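Re: the 316-residue chain
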Amino acid sequence: MNNQVFVQMLHILAERRRSGEREEDRRRAEVIARCPEIGQIMDARREAVMKSVYSAFAQPADENLPEKVAQWNAQIKALLVQNGFAADYLDPVFQCALCEDTGYVGKGKKQLCACARALYSSLLENAEDFQDAQTFAQFDLARFPETPVDKDGTTQRQKMARFRDYCLAYADALPHPERKNLLLYGGSGLGKTFLLRCIHARARERDIPALCVTANHLIRTARKAIFSREQEDMDAFYETELLLVDDLGTEPMIENVTVEELFNLINERQNAGLCTVLSTNLSLTDLQKRYTERILSRLLDRQACQVLHFVGKDIR
């Protein structure tokens, strides 16, 4: 399922870290079996460091500890070489030294590492949900009538051309579009879902981490996470660079789940500077009635959200 790809990536990264730790344990046992002196030095180093940590508030720290640790490290490397090992044989084992297999790099606000982006893209390519991805190249303006839909005489086809161009520009500007959020609303059969999926497909082409889910699946996942107290599946929705939620308004209204989780998701993603695209058949009035003013105020924040109102004839 496409909405599970990001979680699958996180699981794989976690297994990489566990695999690295197991390899470190194996190497340590191998080295100590061949040269017990290395084990004794490692024990002395660990004891000194732990003693310094535990006694930090009870007495002055050992000012010579950094020098002692450096000496122990040099002795270990020398003994490794003498016993036929590489000098860095006991260094931490990572597939990616840049992020140390966490998938994230940077100070302060973390960003996905290049290795995580590549893994995510690879997983997406193998997700069967994407075999028939909808793209901007497949968007057929000829399907929309040349019937005026605005007071200024703008036709439905002209309006959809503008919406297509905006959505394409939004997708090409990811992860830093002028406005992070995008709300597509209006009647059914007007192209909202198609354009949402076009944005998703374009993000994948550009290796932007993205999750595309229905509102129904999102809320059911939230409910399961709350009652099982396992937030990992929901973490993906909060952390992915681009989240696309289709058919907002069709999900079940679960007390203490639907409205609260939706508000928290939109609010936290907005505060984190992440991109969110939502589509709904509901009017703005109906959105306010269903989700309260708090959520609607986030969706209509002109600093953060672009609103596209779809009108015209159902083309399905």
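The radius of gyration is 27 Å.
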